[in-house]
Design goal:
The structure is a homotetramer of 292-residue chains.
Chain A (H helix, E strand, L loop, with lengths): L7 E4 L13 H13 L4 E2 L13 H15 L6 E3 L5 H14 L3 E4 L9 H12 L6 E5 L1 H4 L5 H7 L5 E6 L4 H11 L4 E4 L5 H7 L3 E4 L6 H12 L3 H21 L1 H11 L16 H13 L1
Parallel strand pairs in A: 1-2, 1-8, 3-4, 4-5, 5-6, 6-7, 7-8
Helix pairs in contact in A: 1-2, 2-3, 3-4, 9-10, 10-11, 10-12, 11-12
Chain lengths: 292, 292, 292, 292
């Protein structure tokens, strides 16, 4: 396999805001530290969970730097640097590399639907400007474009694109990746309710916001898979499934913030137009967390 | 669990026709015998693979009787009895029971989209007329209606509806069934490319036409799961995945017939408007079967 | 334009059943007569509205003969003869022609998804056995297959396929037909809520069950279009839109039967699994009919 | 009707870039002037056609100011001010109002799917900060969220939200708007291939990039509708349909730039990742423009 540092549970921190909806870096570091001590195998700031698209350039840079400082090399760091324009993607990718990121994640954000050639050119142009590895991320629901397996294969010909994150929620895509790419390329699951199916299909890691709330169940699932113990993996998976579905259905930033609140941890504020879960949604989440 | 006889590999025979497009019962029995001796744990005549909706009442009855005679109790028999009208469904269900079927499978066929109440009433009315167990089958692609998990739960309150076959191709549905129904109800996977994910999710059996072509790989997968050996299951699954995808994409009756031909076995003729695979499709299938 | 008799409002009668769910031919004739005297320009028995797929061969033949007898040449008759197999489609097409139908309507019913070649062959084989014109009908929701405009073009090369009925509900399909086929082929709208858009796009006729309940509004719309009076057409269309949407959403046979009941006309019984509208649905329909 | 200035053909200018992919304001003004002299009834800078989401805040401000200067009150100006966050939407809305815009257009851009309450709050918060009218824009394909008719009705209760632009491509939505909102609210069509159907349904105007290439055909369609001449409207519509479909399928900024080139007009450069049409696409567009 193309060498890579990332495997197991790749935890996504939220980006907390203060009352005036400014990024709260001090609180961010506290929440990040929780992920680090709870056993996650890597962290990924500025993902969807971290509401990256809602942040200004300066805010993104501050979060990137805060992450590197807090992690201090304890686990690998994967920084989200996606942007609608190629120029801005390069800018953020270079910033992340210079700040000390171990890899960057890029989803081809799309307002005007991009052609396959435009997407390949976008990745290629960015990749040439950095030396750290790139995780290409496919998530039509948020990125607006669905990269076919054939397109992903083309993108993987770029030397420092070494990882694929799949979030379509279709396990068949993972079958394709595994079968076509064999052991040369690692693929990662980004769809929480598919965690068991994706590991069964051979995923190298699970990109997830769930460790903010249930870190032990997440690592237990990975360990069962490592031990080739499907029965245990199934048992552990069904224990956490209700929570995984809830946080996906309600939106990760909102749901994680609410869950932290239930666990007595300050998750800060959201940035508008995102609003907190309703009272009844919080109650439902409380019941799910109790059962876990 | 509600007691049931069905588990493992439930094999679906094709219904072969002669040159005049009449059902060829003698050839049917030969093809069925192949499934029986190759280790399938049960057989299911008059499924989609058996082109049940293309047959007359008399033809369906002949196939049912031929199956019971040929099987001679060696494995359990699950007979498809679905029909657009409730009256005809009852007719065929009673016929199958009298002929000696161990269970019947019913998909609520839909021309005019049925309401949930109409579907429940349909199942209930049929169920009251027979004593053998019923497998409720969800397959929006062929049946025209997608039964929600909530609706399936209602149908399962009918005493002799004891099994669910899921063919939406969405592993999340199986998660739901497993979590909601626990160990009280068995669920079966009808989506071939989901075979690994479904067993990982806890499916009791796999309803499949693949044993017509690759019986050993099918049972090997089931055995690996029984042995809690995920690594082996994954290996065996990826070996057969290309074939599973091919037969689904090309249509089971066409693809199985073509595969039998490649293996030197007479699969008879198809009934119009269904036509044989094209030459290039047959060539593609040949390459896939060689690799297996 | 290839000469054809059909234009304007092509009315679809329901097939009423008696208490024992047997076809009630005597009541059928009465309901058909209402359509004839109310100004419809043609009638189409054994359509979706007439629950053709739920009928036995004998019942279909009885309905066909009853229609010809009752119409007595007053308007052209278009008989639905679709069937899952080619052999049965031929059978019913020949029966309809012999009975005196002016044309037959064929939707390529699909259980196993048909390839384009299979569909062309199906139409071609049937067309060669009859001399009356064929209306090719595209309705993925009930037929299970969506014929692309390119496929429709191929089918129209068959000499006696002279008309297209489009029920995808996508006005763009009609644009395509009009642009590609010009004045050589007539296209008909089968999507009730698209009636105005389809006529604006150049449809020759409207295939609809609505004349069972609101014949004058239907013909008023057609007349406004004939008079090149868009303002009037818009006004008349919005008057009937609520009803058109209701009957489509609830299913035509159920909704027409309920509407007849509200108007004091006996619509007979439905055949299971189809059930009458609920009380609250009937009330809603009552309010809509009052406003009309 | 809530008083509004906008009706007829609302033309969308592209935002041209120079070789270094910087916004070329001088070229922008020339292209805008073409729209003004060709008879468009209003102009709408910073729409999808104007690649608004790809611009920095400073660039958006420059385009807004250039538009007001160039238009000099000759036609009403509708400025796009949508943004992922509420705070930035307010910022741009206030800027547009101060610069002299007659109205602003807002699509609730969505990365994390917004709830109905979040969308209403977003519109309400912005609306309170300005006095010019707001056109609420529904376009799931680019905005990422599909506002149901019921939600649009809620948003229209905000006093200065007075116009709806619909780009789902589903004429039924326009029927709903017309029927529910009657003459109180104007609705505008944003789906080019639906131009005829939308006017037939009662749309007040057509938001379109087509006047960059075929201004006369666009205004001819509107005039035919104003004259209640459906036959003429149909004729004029079919003349331009191929072009309308082409520019939508290829993406408006790319297609308009290519079309300008064919017509001998400098359309500047695109901003990466957007790339020019391929040679064969340009050739296809050339043939379409010749036929017009």
């Amino acid at each position: 396999m193309k060498n890579n540092l990332f495997k197991g549970i790749i935890a996504y921190p939220i980006t907390p805001f203060d009352k005036e909806e400014k990024v709260d870096i001090s609180l961010y570091k506290k929440l990040l530290e929780r992920l680090l001590v709870s056993g996650s195998h890597a962290v990924a700031p500025l993902g969807s969970t971290g509401v990256m698209p809602y942040l200004t350039d300066e805010e993104k840079e501050a979060v990137t730097e805060a992450t590197i400082q807090q992690v201090k090399g304890r686990v690998p760091v994967l920084v989200g640097v996606s942007n609608l324009t190629t120029e801005r993607t390069i800018y953020h990718a270079k910033f992340a590399e210079k700040a000390g990121a171990d890899a960057v994640m890029i989803i081809p954000m799309s307002y005007w639907k991009l052609s396959d050639d435009e997407i390949v050119k976008h990745f290629d142009t960015v990749a040439k400007q950095i030396t750290v590895p790139i995780m290409a991320y496919n998530n039509p629901a948020t990125g607006g474009v669905d990269m076919s397996p054939a397109l992903l294969k083309r993108i993987l010909e770029i030397p420092n694109v070494t990882m694929i994150k799949e979030s379509t929620g279709d396990v068949q895509r993972m079958h394709y990746l595994k079968r076509e790419l064999g052991d040369d390329v690692a693929f990662y699951n980004g769809s929480n309710p598919l965690a068991l199916a994706a590991f069964a299909a051979g995923a190298t890691g699970w990109c997830t916001a769930a460790p903010n709330l249930i870190p032990n169940l997440n690592t237990d699932l990975y360990n069962a898979i490592q031990n080739n113990d499907l029965n245990e993996a199934q048992k552990v998976f069904y224990k956490q499934l209700n929570l995984l579905k809830f946080i996906v259905n309600k939106g990760l930033p909102r749901a994680i913030k609410a869950g932290l609140g239930i666990q007595g941890i300050d998750g800060g504020f959201l940035r508008s137009p995102l609003k907190p879960l309703t009272e009844s949604e919080v109650k439902e989440l409380g019941l799910i967390l109790e059962e876990v």
